[in-house]
Amino acid sequence: MQPHTAHSTVARHCIIIMCFVIASLSVVLPDTATAEDPGLSAKQTAVAKIPFERMTASATERIKSTINPRAIYKHLPKSTIQCSPELYIQLVRYPELVCNMWELMGAAKLRVNRIGEFEFTVSDLKGNTSQVELIYGTQNTHVFLIDGNYKGPLLVKNIKAKTVVVVHSSFELNDKSEPITKHSIDLFMNLDSGIGDLVEGVVVPLFMKVTEWNYDEITKFVGQVYDVALTKPDGMQRLITKLTRCQPAIRKRLSKVTTAIAESSVRTAALPK
Q1: Which residues lie below 8 Å from residue 194, measured CB to CB, with a gap of 6+?
Q2: Which of 273, 178, 183 is nearest to 230 (CA)?
Q3: Phi and psi dihedrals of 134, rounded to 5?
């Protein structure tokens, strides 16, 4: 269960964004716009899927102020993982679990500090920091707002960016009655207008390429965590006790979820063939 390590500043930024398993709109779309409207662009279609009608006025305003016409849009296509809904949602909502696992494996040094039930900060200990808030969360949709500050040896000045990440997920059973999770991501990044077109023209394509790579790697990692919970429950419980950068209540929930996965596997195996 070993993820690859990304080394560049941009790659670390991508990992931060993708952990939430891992940086809006100032012109409101017409009320008649829907995700099924063939006349919409890919970006407009993604915006139409955001459940603004279920959010508070304040949350809606903050997201729409980030997803403006200048925002860069990226869609990460649907991937399928063998994972239960309960475990998947835990890893999406509490990325400190993933980061702490990676730290124990020596793969990535990201620090997540939870400052509220729905808020946390992420740092790579090299000056790149993000403040993240889960604005909206249901079983099938999670909307995160990220306010980040990034720097690196190739950058003349720090880059500030606001990002909205929308995680779409669905759950079903395969033909072997095993739990399957399907997810995709819509990402909207609004870079500081002062960075200049030249820097943006270099940073953005690299960012998007690395984002795709990390999306695939984190998707695989979530599946690996489920596999360990399923096949090595004792090892999973030992690992959870070592996640000391996570709050006790969060570790306890993960322990309960992974124990249920193992117990369900035992019950299934005992059924008559």
Answers
A1: 157
A2: 178
A3: -80, 105
